[in-house]
Design a protein that fits this description.
The complex is a heterodimer of chains A (278) and B (294). Chain A is mostly helical. Chain A has helices at residues 9-26, 28-31, 69-105, 107-121, 125-136, 140-167, 170-177, 182-218, 230-239, 246-273. The longest helix of chain A has 37 residues, at 69-105. With 294 residues, chain B is α/β, with parallel strands linked by helices. Chain B contains eleven helices and ten strands. Chain B has helices at 46-54, 80-90, 108-118, 124-137, 143-147, 156-169, 186-203, 214-220, 238-243, 248-255, 272-293, and strands at residues 6-15, 21-30, 35-40, 61-70, 73-74, 91-94, 174-178, 206-211, 223-228, 231-237. In chain B, the strands form two sheets. A six-stranded mixed β-sheet of chain B has the order 6-7-8-3-9-10, sandwiched between helices. A four-stranded antiparallel β-sheet of chain B has the order 2-1-4-5. In chain B, strand 4 (61-70) and strand 5 form a beta hairpin. The chains are: A mainly alpha (278), B alpha/beta (294). At the A-B interface, helix 7 and helix 8 of A face helix 2 and helix 3 of B.
Chain lengths: 278, 294
């Protein structure tokens, strides 16, 4: 058993990165050394400071329109954070509520919800997203709606199974005998025990939401390519990868670390705080 | 004879989908203050009887016939809500596995007072005082701390004590103890048994004691029903069952129980011939049921 008073390493590392990420997103205007949208065609494709040929002040270099990569990276965190929180949270809320009802009440509630989930999951997700955005129009809100609409099933499936298992516990039966209503029993006896699972899923989903947004930016279905998004930066960097790798690599690393941190943070929290595991 | 508090008459149940019988015309009575032992092998349907009383049978199992009378009222005729109220106020369960019977994410205190506040409508304060008193009654040291603990902070024996205290909290007239010592360490088992007997005597509760252990039955039960494949093969006073078992199966169950006062006696497995005879008996019963139904 891990020492309960010491935070595990993965919580430390992932927590640090998430703090950096959130701070960058919140305080972008104060941290970013340049305007992320300001072009300077005299300074295109500048390398990072530690490589010869760089310009002081452009720490991570510039892209092919002379925009500061570091500033764009920091502003990109804003969009990633918004997507992670709103899209991840939305999918989590809808999926968990439906999953909880299906798993706890069983019967026709379960049949109805599960069939919808089955049908839903049969759509290829990326095509589904593209279709949705075609209908809703491009833009951040469409991306968020698309992620919620597609990914709630992920929660629903897992939470349903979890709720089903938790509902079979003897204390749930006795709560029913003891006269707590069905709904009250669900909230008091079942919900608290699946919150750790919801937490882990949510942290995973936040990572996935960030990736999906990046993918949609990459195929130009999110924000316009002017706006600083990690996906957009990667798409742009791809075209010049042979002589300006940094345009692609920095957002890629940021994306990678963020997604990894979200999933590790969730796992770490579960390990540390789940009473069921103790 | 005194009026029975609980009376099960001719109760039959089966798995709805495939028709496999679970209980076969089970009848038994528990009079006030009595401990009735329900003995049988795994799968004999012991726990199912307890669950049927509580209305907690799994959905897949349906009751095909019979009556369960509690204080002169048939539970099976009642509406669900009404039945729950009566069950909740008059009966309680001491569960088999203390590990799954307490919610890991709630403190002990509120889990003990649920019944008092929900069914009897007690004020929170009053319920807490009562819970504290009961924890003392089950010999828990520092009951205040235990009330504020989470289940994982207590040992298995402690949890079972908490559950026993909770079962007696609302002064139920009948407690179904569903193999309350099976999941516990042998050394703790004896204490827990003594504790149940002690509280039962003090609160004048009837007890339906489900177990597979003849030794336990001998210690605490006044009457015994021996169950095989959902059918009661013998029902009698505990004293006469042990001195003069009426059925070969009961006899072999007794012989299969270790006795500490006669350590040299060897344990005998149940004779397969007896089991075959029982299977035949049950097949006959099922046939008669079939012709009676059709």
């Amino acid at each position: 058993m891990v020492d309960r008073h010491k935070l595990p390493m993965r919580l430390w590392l992932s927590g640090t990165w998430i703090t950096l990420f959130v701070a960058a997103a919140l305080f972008a205007p104060f941290i970013a050394p340049h305007d992320p949208l300001a072009q300077d065609l005299l300074y295109t494709n500048l390398p990072p400071v530690w490589i010869s040929g760089s310009e002081p002040g452009y720490y991570f270099g510039t892209d092919s329109l002379g925009r500061d990569v570091l500033s764009r990276l920091i502003y990109g965190a804003r969009i990633a954070l918004v997507v992670a929180v709103i899209a991840g949270g939305g999918a989590c809320l809808i999926g968990s509520v439906l999953g909880l009802f299906a798993g706890f009440f069983r019967g026709w509630t379960d049949v109805l919800i599960s069939r919808v989930v089955d049908i839903w999951m049969a759509f290829p997700p990326v095509l589904f997203a593209i279709l949705l955005i075609a209908v809703l129009g491009t833009g951040l809100h469409s991306v968020i709606i698309a992620i919620i609409v597609i990914d709630w099933t992920r929660f629903c499936r897992v939470i349903r199974a979890e709720a089903m298992q938790q509902s079979r516990m003897e204390y749930v039966e006795s709560a029913l005998v003891v006269g707590r209503g069905r709904f009250g029993t669900m909230l008091v006896e079942v919900l608290p025990n699946i919150i750790p699972a919801i937490g882990v899923l949510l942290s995973l989903e936040m990572g996935i939401a960030v990736i999906v947004e990046a993918i949609l930016s990459f195929v130009n279905l999110s924000l316009s390519s002017d706006d600083a998004t990690w996906g957009g930066m990667i798409a742009e960097g791809r075209t010049v990868i042979y002589h300006a790798w940094w345009i692609l690599v920095f957002p890629l690393v940021a994306l990678f670390l963020t997604v990894l941190s979200f999933s590790q943070f969730g796992e770490g929290l579960k390990e540390r705080f789940d009473p069921v595991l103790k | 004879m005194t009026e029975a508090f609980l009376s099960i008459e001719n109760l039959s149940a089966r798995v709805a989908a495939i028709g496999t019988p679970i209980l076969r015309s089970v009848s038994l009575k528990v009079i006030p203050g009595e401990t009735h032992g329900l003995v049988g092998e795994s799968g004999a349907g012991k726990s199912m009887i307890g669950k049927a009383i509580m209305g907690l049978l799994p959905r897949a199992i349906e009751i095909t016939e019979g009556e369960i009378w509690l204080e002169g009222r048939n539970l099976l005729d009642m509406k669900r809500g009404e039945r729950r109220r009566i069950i909740g106020a008059q009966t309680a369960i001491i569960p088999q596995d203390p590990l799954t019977a307490l919610n890991p994410s709630r403190r002990i205190g509120p889990q003990m007072t649920d019944r008092l506040t929900h069914i009897l409508g007690w004020a929170e304060r009053k319920a807490q005082v009562r819970a504290l008193g009961l924890l003392e009654e089950v010999h828990i040291r520092d009951p205040k701390r235990v009330m504020h603990s989470y289940p994982h902070e207590l040992s298995g024996g402690m949890r079972q004590r908490v559950l026993i205290a909770a079962a007696f909290a609302a002064e139920p007239k009948l407690i179904v103890a569903d193999e309350p010592t099976t999941a516990l360490d042998v050394t703790v088992q004896k204490q827990i048994l003594r504790l149940i007997a002690e509280l039962k005597a003090h609160h004048e509760t009837s007890l339906l004691f489900v177990t597979h252990d003849m030794g336990v039955v001998a210690k605490i039960c006044q009457r015994v029903s021996v169950l095989f494949s959902g059918r009661i093969v013998e029902q009698n006073e505990a004293a006469s069952i042990f001195s003069n078992p009426g059925h070969a199966y009961t006899k072999s169950l007794i012989q299969a129980t270790p006795r500490y006062d006669r350590p040299d006696e060897s344990l005998l497995p149940v004779d397969p011939a007896i089991l075959e005879a029982l299977d035949r008996e049950i097949a006959t019963h099922d046939r008669q049921q079939g012709t009676a139904d059709g």
